[in-house]
C-alpha cells in the first residue's frame, strides 16, 4: 500500500510540475502516426518522462545547454538525439522511430537443433528469460515452471516433496530436461537436477510441447525443456541474488565471469537452506521438507583458431532433505519410532561441445552425470546409483533450399539400487544397463519464401527392446513476417525405468508389483499451431494458440486402487489419449503495463479393455482447465516494478483408496503472488512480496498420519485404511512474506 501511495504521489507531482512553460518539447511519431507512452530520458541526468496519448513530451526548467535524449518504446528501436536548449525560447524536437520486429522474434535452437528465429522455426518453441521468472522469485527452476502455461510442477509425495514436471497433462517421465541441449537430467535425477541451477546462470529457457523423440530419443514423448546457460564471454562480471522468507527459507545465487586471451570462465554457486518445522494443518507432519542444498557450476569457453565453439562445463550438487513427524530427528533415520523420509543426494555433471572451423557444420556434444541417492522412507531403505553418458556427432549443411541435419547419438545408462528392480530371479544383484546407439536425419526444405516443410526420421537400437523408429513431418506457412501457421505430426517412444521415476512406489506402506515384462511405449501425435505478432502504436501483442492430440500404445500405467498396499504396473490393454487446446497472449504497452496470460484445456485419459469392455479412466493430476497470468506495471519515474503472478487449476483426479473419505476431485484453486521491485541504480535492486496471497492450503493430504507405520490398522478402522502420502494437488504452505536483493556488475 505504501509503494502504491508513493507512486501515486509521484504521478501527481509530475503532473503539477508540467503546468509551466516547457524548456523543451516535441512529438514522437512512427509510420506517420503519433506514438504514445514512449520513454524519454535525458542521459547523464535524473530527468525522464513519457509521451502522452498524442505522442507529445515536454521538460520544464532545463538549463540552456546541449543534452542527449534517449527515446525507447516496446516494439521500436531505441534512438538517441542530441539537442541544444535555447536560453530565451522553448526548443522543439520531433523524433521518428523505427519498428523493431526482432524484439518479438527470439532465436531458438531446441525445435530443430539449429539457431533460427522463433517465427521461422517449423516447430513451435516457447522462450522464457530469467527476467520472466524473477517476477515471482523462487529458489529453483522446478517451482519457477509453475508460471508457464501448460507446464505443471507436480509434487508426488506430501512428506519428502519430490515431484516431476507435467507437460499437457503427461507425467514427468514423459518430459526430457536438457541443459545446453544435452540430456543431462533424467529419470532418478529429474527433481534434483532442476534444483540448484541459479537464475543468474540461465540465458533463456526453451520449451517444446509434444513428442520430440526424432531428435532427442526416449523420454521426449511429452515435451522438452532446454535450459540454456549464459556464455562466459558475455556474462556479467558479478551477479548476486539473495532472498529470505518469513518462514525461514534462505536462498543465495552468486555468479561471476572472467575473460582471458585464450579462454573465458563463468562460475555460479547456489545455496538454499530451510530448516524450520511447520505444521499448519496440525497433523503432526511437516508441511514442507526441510532442505539444505549447495550447487556449484563452472563453464569454460576456449578461444581456438580451429574451433568455432569449444566449451566445457561441470556442476556438483549436494542436498540433504527430510520430512515427517515433528518429533523426528536424524537419530531416528530408518527406525520405526518416529516416521521420517530422509534423502541424501550427491550429483556430478559434465557437459561439453566442440564445433570445428576446419570442418564446417560438424559438432561433437558430450555429457556425463553420476547420481547417488541414499534414502529412507520410514523403515524402507532406498539406495540408488545412476550413471548416464552421452555423446553425439552432429553435421549440418545448407544445400540450396535444403537445410540438412544428421546425427549419430550414443547413450549409456547404468542403474543400480537395493530394490526388486535390480534383483535377478536367483536373488543376486543385477544392475540395469542400457546401451542406446542411434541415427537421425532431418531435412528442412524452403519450398517457397512463405512455405517450409520439415522431414525427419530416427532409428535407435535398444539392447533389450530392439529396433525403434520415430519419424516426424512438419509444415510451416508464413504469409508475412508476423503470422505463422504450423502443422506437425510424428511419433515418439519411451523406455521406462520404474524405480528411477516413481518415488511414490517407495513411500508409505505400498509395495511394487510388475505383472508382465514391460514393453516400450509408442505414441503418435499431431499439433496445429498459429502464432501472430501485432505491433500497435502504443506497444505490441504476441498471440500463440495450439491444438494437440497424442495417441499412446503400450502405455505403462500404475494401479493404485486395486490393492491399497501395492502399486501395480503393467502395459495398458487398450490405448491412451492426450488432447487439448492451449492459448498464450503476451501484451506489452509503452505506458509500463505488461500482461502475460495463458489457458489450457485438455482431456487426458486411457481406454482400458477388460472382459471385452472398454472403460475410460481419466489421468490423475491432470486438470481439464488451468491458466497462468502475469500482470506487470513499470513506473519509471519511481523505479518501481509491480508484478502480480498466479496460477489457476481446475478440478483434477486424485489417487484415492477404496471408500476414501477424501474427495476424488480437487477443488478449483488459485495460487497468487505479489512482488514489488525497486531499482536503486543500474546495478542494484531490492524486491519484496507475498507468496500465496489467498492463503490457499489443501485439505487432508495424508491418510492416517497418526499411524504412519500401520501398527494399529485393526483399531477403529472399518475400511482398512493404511498410511498414504500420494494425495496431493497443491503445496502445503500458506501465505508468507519475502524480501530480497539483486546486485549486478557488468
UniProtKB/TrEMBL annotation:
Keywords: Cell outer membrane, Membrane, Receptor, TonB box, Transmembrane, Transmembrane beta strand, Transport. Residues 283-693 form the TonB-dependent receptor-like beta-barrel domain. It is found in: Cell outer membrane. Residues 118-224 form the TonB-dependent receptor plug domain. Pfam families: CarbopepD_reg_2, Plug, TonB_dep_Rec_b-barrel. Gene3D superfamilies: Carboxypeptidase-like, regulatory domain, TonB-dependent receptor, beta-barrel domain, TonB-dependent receptor, plug domain. It is a multi-pass membrane protein. PANTHER family: TONB-DEPENDENT OUTER MEMBRANE RECEPTOR, TONB-DEPENDENT RECEPTOR. Belongs to the TonB-dependent receptor family. This is TonB-dependent receptor. It comes from Chryseolinea lacunae.
Amino acid at each position: 500500500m505504501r509503494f502504491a501511495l508513493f507512486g501515486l504521489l509521484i504521478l501527481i507531482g509530475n503532473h503539477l510540475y508540467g503546468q509551466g512553460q516547457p524548456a523543451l518539447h516535441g512529438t514522437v511519431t512512427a509510420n506517420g502516426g503519433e506514438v504514445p507512452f514512449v520513454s524519454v530520458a535525458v542521459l547523464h541526468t535524473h530527468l525522464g518522462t513519457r509521451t502522452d496519448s498524442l505522442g507529445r513530451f515536454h521538460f520544464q526548467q532545463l538549463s540552456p545547454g546541449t543534452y542527449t535524449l534517449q527515446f525507447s518504446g516496446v516494439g521500436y528501436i531505441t534512438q538517441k538525439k542530441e539537442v541544444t536548449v535555447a536560453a530565451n525560447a522553448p526548443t522543439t524536437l520531433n523524433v521518428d522511430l523505427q519498428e523493431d520486429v526482432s524484439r518479438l522474434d527470439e532465436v531458438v535452437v531446441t525445435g530443430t537443433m539449429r539457431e533460427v528465429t522463433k517465427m521461422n522455426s517449423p516447430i513451435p518453441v516457447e522462450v522464457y528469460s530469467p527476467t520472466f521468472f524473477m517476477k515471482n522469485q523462487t529458489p529453483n527452476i522446478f517451482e519457477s515452471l509453475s508460471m508457464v502455461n501448460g507446464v505443471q510442477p507436480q509434487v508426488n509425495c506430501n512428506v519428502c516433496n519430490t515431484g516431476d514436471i507435467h507437460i499437457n497433462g503427461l507425467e514427468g517421465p514423459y518430459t526430457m530436461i536438457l541443459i545446453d541441449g544435452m540430456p543431462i537430467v533424467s529419470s532418478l535425477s529429474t527433481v534434483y537436477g532442476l534444483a540448484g541451477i541459479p537464475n543468474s546462470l540461465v540465458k533463456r529457457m526453451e520449451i517444446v510441447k509434444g513428442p520430440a523423440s526424432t531428435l532427442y530419443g526416449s523420454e521426449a514423448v511429452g515435451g522438452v525443456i532446454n535450459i540454456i546457460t549464459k556464455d562466459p564471454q558475455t556474462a556479467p562480471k558479478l551477479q548476486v541474488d539473495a532472498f529470505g522468507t518469513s518462514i525461514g527459507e534462505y536462498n543465495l545465487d552468486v555468479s561471476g565471469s572472467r575473460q582471458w586471451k585464450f579462454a573465458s570462465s563463468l562460475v555460479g554457486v547456489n545455496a538454499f537452506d530451510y530448516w524450520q518445522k511447520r505444521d499448519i494443518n496440525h497433523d503432526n507432519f511437516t508441511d514442507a521438507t526441510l532442505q539444505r542444498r549447495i550447487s556449484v557450476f563452472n563453464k569454460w569457453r576456449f578461444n581456438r583458431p580451429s574451433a568455432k565453439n569449444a566449451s566445457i562445463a561441470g556442476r556438483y550438487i549436494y542436498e540433504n532433505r527430510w520430512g515427517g513427524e515433528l518429533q523426528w530427528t536424524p537419530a531416528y533415520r530408518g527406525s520405526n519410532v518416529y516416521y521420517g523420509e530422509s534423502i541424501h543426494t550427491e550429483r556430478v555433471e559434465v557437459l561439453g561441445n566442440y564445433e570445428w572451423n576446419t570442418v564446417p557444420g560438424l559438432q561433437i556434444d558430450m555429457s556425463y552425470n553420476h547420481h547417488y541417492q541414499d534414502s529412507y522412507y520410514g523403515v524402507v531403505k532406498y539406495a540408488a546409483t545412476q550413471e548416464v553418458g552421452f555423446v553425439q556427432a552432429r553435421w549440418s549443411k545448407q544445400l540450396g533450399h535444403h537445410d540438412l541435419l544428421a546425427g549419430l547419438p550414443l547413450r549409456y545408462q547404468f542403474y543400480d539400487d537395493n530394490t526388486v528392480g535390480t534383483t535377478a530371479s536367483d536373488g543376486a544383484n543385477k544392475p540395469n544397463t542400457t546401451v542406446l546407439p542411434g541415427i537421425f536425419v532431418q531435412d528442412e526444405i524452403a519450398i517457397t519464401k512463405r512455405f517450409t516443410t520439415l522431414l525427419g526420421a530416427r532409428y535407435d537400437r535398444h539392447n533389450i527392446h530392439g529396433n525403434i523408429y520415430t519419424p516426424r513431418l512438419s509444415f510451416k506457412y508464413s504469409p508475412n513476417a508476423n503470422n505463422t501457421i504450423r502443422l506437425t505430426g510424428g511419433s515418439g517412444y519411451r523406455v521406462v525405468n520404474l524405480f528411477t521415476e516413481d518415488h511414490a512406489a517407495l513411500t508409505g506402506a505400498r509395495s511394487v508389483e510388475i505383472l508382465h515384462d514391460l514393453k516400450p511405449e509408442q505414441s503418435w501425435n499431431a499439433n496445429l499451431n498459429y502464432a501472430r505478432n501485432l505491433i500497435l502504436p502504443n506497444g505490441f501483442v504476441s498471440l500463440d494458440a495450439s491444438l494437440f492430440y497424442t495417441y499412446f500404445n503400450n502405455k505403462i500405467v500404475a494401479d493404485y486402487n486395486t490393492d491399497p498396499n501395492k502399486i501395480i504396473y503393467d502395459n495398458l490393454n487398450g490405448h491412451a489419449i492426450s488432447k487439448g487446446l492451449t492459448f498464450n497472449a503476451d501484451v506489452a504497452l509503452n505506458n509500463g503495463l505488461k500482461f502475460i496470460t495463458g489457458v489450457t484445456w485438455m482431456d487426458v485419459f486411457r481406454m482400458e479393455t477388460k472382459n471385452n469392455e472398454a472403460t475410460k479412466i481419466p489421468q490423475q493430476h491432470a486438470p481439464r482447465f488451468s491458466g497462468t497470468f502475469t500482470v506487470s506495471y513499470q513506473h519509471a519515474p519511481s523505479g518501481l516494478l509491480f508484478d502480480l503472478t498466479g496460477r489457476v487449476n481446475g478440478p483434477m483426479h486424485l489417487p484415492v483408496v477404496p471408500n476414501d473419505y477424501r474427495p476424488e476431485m480437487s477443488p478449483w484453486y488459485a495460487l497468487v503472488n505479489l512482488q514489488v521491485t525497486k531499482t536503486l541504480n543500474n546495478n542494484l535492486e531490492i524486491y519484496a512480496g507475498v507468496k500465496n496471497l489467498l492463503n490457499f492450503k489443501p485439505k487432508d493430504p495424508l491418510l492416517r498420519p497418526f499411524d504412519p507405520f500401520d501398527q494399529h490398522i485393526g483399531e477403529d478402522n472399518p475400511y482398512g485404511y493404511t498410511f498414504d502420502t500420494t494425495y496431493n494437488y497443491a503445496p502445503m504452505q500458506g501465505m508468507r512474506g519475502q524480501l530480497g536483493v539483486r546486485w549486478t556488475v557488468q
